[in-house]
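anyone else get weird line breaks when pasting these?? whatever heres mine. first is seq + tokens for prot A
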Amino acid sequence: MVKHLSKLLFFLFVAAIGLLLVCPSADSQDFPQKPVKLIATARAGGGEDVEARAVAPFLEKQLGVSVQVENQPGAGGKIAFEKFQKTEPDGYSLIVTTFPKSIIIEYMGKVGYKTADFTSVFSWSRGNQLLVVHGDSWKTFDEFLKAAKAKTLAGGLSGRGSTTHLAGLVAVDELGIKVNWVPYEGAAGSVAALAGKHLDFTICLATSAVPLIRSGKLRPLMLFGDKRDPYLPDVPIPADLGFNITALPAMRIAQAPPKTPPAIVKRLEDAFSKVVQEPGFIEWAKKRRAVLHPTGSQELAKIVTMTYSKVEKFQEMFKK
């Protein structure tokens, strides 16, 4: 009896292993079966939050399940990234952020995560930072620079370690000016402060200031990029003004936790790639002046790897 039972157990064990080999992950095949969460690393109202909430309904349509947005602000995103490092790699939690913010924060001090460990899924848009002033102040960049050399101005940032932080440090170094930086949790705070004349200028993505730029409340004076923004063709880039200011494009990306199964990543990647083809989403992007630049998981993973060496060059600036 015992002998037969042992044989039966052994047979069942072998059969189970065989099923696993044939079907590596039933969860991967059936994914998704419950709501998917998009974690925005900034407060509600900021660029990350707004874009996550714009993506969500279209992603729901492609995945066939509810897609919820959860804000996890704090320390510029560090808290959310550290928590995400330990998140279950089942595809039901994705972090939506402005890349390369997470890598910048890594170079600012000790952290409990590594961006390279996260599983790249998709990036839908790419943009550059703007230097923006109040509509009642300087009309040109030359006027702004003259004032900045005469006194220390107050500049807004969407958080320490943000892409605006990097753009600001590089710009100040090249322009030879001094700035009292005021960090906010997300671009919404710095843009609102500038509109209320509590700052002399702020640096933000164009998408974060669109309504106030359109109304004339704010005025963009420089775009930190290698070429002009298609939605803001009259705003000069550093080269137009005789400056050499290196800037990394800011990308809106979605990543999954470390070691997320490839089949789940593929399912998510396919869903995101269809989202950016939706007429409704394309129209939303045009209104927000978001430059769509679809990038799949493999290409995004390469960009993440290459960005470390680029950000490392500015490590001393972050420490100062």
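and prot B, same format (seq, then tokens)
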Amino acid sequence: MGSMPNLIIIGASARAAAASAIRAGFTPWTADLFADRDLREMVPDAIRCPAEQYPQGFVDILKQAPDATWMYTGALENSPNLIRKLIKIRPLWGNGTDALLASRSPFFIARLLERNGLPALEVRLSDGERSPVHRWLQKPLRGAAGNGIRFSVERNPSGYFQQYIEGTSMSANFVRARGRVKLLGITEQLIGIDWLNAPPFRYAGNIGPAEVSEPCRAELTRIGEVIGDGCGLLGLFGVDFILAENRPWVVEVNPRYTASVEVLERAMDFSLLSEHRTAFADEFVPPRMLPGHSKICGKAILYAEREFVFSSTDWPGREDLENFADIPHQGDLIQAGWPILTILATGNSTEECRTELKSRANILNTHLHLSSLIHAENMGNMAY
């Protein structure tokens, strides 16, 4: 990519957003924790932010970056003070500190929904009284990807409690531009999936687009409008919710490009980042009708059962790279519990897509499990 970058993307992982940027006609420049192999193929100058410097290292990285606007991916929404510093360095295509603080407050969101007659889960401070009628989840105030969530067992001074409700975990993507909120699509979430080695509550992917009833879709659209307007959000944002008894119960708001955007783009052959641009571009861009979809797409994050060294020349997907993403480099050390890579699949139905994802995950699991055992045995032999 020889042309001058016109969009900087930073966050824990930038690969999916970089692919979206290219679909939208941008030339991206990226900095994240991995600078994965396939990201480097799209963005040869991709920067890897050392884990020990994340996320504060983005200050120096952005100062030295090309002259362009920037956007962030997860989980920088949990660092509003950092976002404030970065806005002073380059113009942001995304949500600033005030919008972040409002949208990431479970208490503000619950009150906002209640005031507008929308479904709202009960939330309590860590030292607050909780009704014995409900089960409760302990959640960190600044969490991401399901890390740190568990059923309530003790007081947690640094977090909060949220009412637990049985149902299907789902995501909705919206864009707010020029005072208008649009529902872009809905996907089913993969949460705590055992065949992906994902711990309970850990985010592990999406499948979609997902269909819901018209009353549910109407209520979800209203939720997007209330949250978008009430928090002053701009551009793309996501709402995670539980679908229970045909009603969407909001779990969390992600005020940025979300992982599920990629699934919708692949299914619709359409760039949602083009919709994001309309919130920040100076020229007027008339709203467009979203295309339909003829396929169901999915992405699934495979987590490591144990520590191993990744071999780019010895893994089952090396001859079929179009079905995999976020691919590590040769010799990368993958620690137990870390994401290894992302599996991609398409199907004519949600179940067909899920089956294909599971089949590929099982093949990878078997191979990588054996490889990690061989690595551990060799390391043990070297000790003698």
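btw re prot B: Residues 122-164 form one domain. Confidence is low (pLDDT under 50) at residues 379-384.
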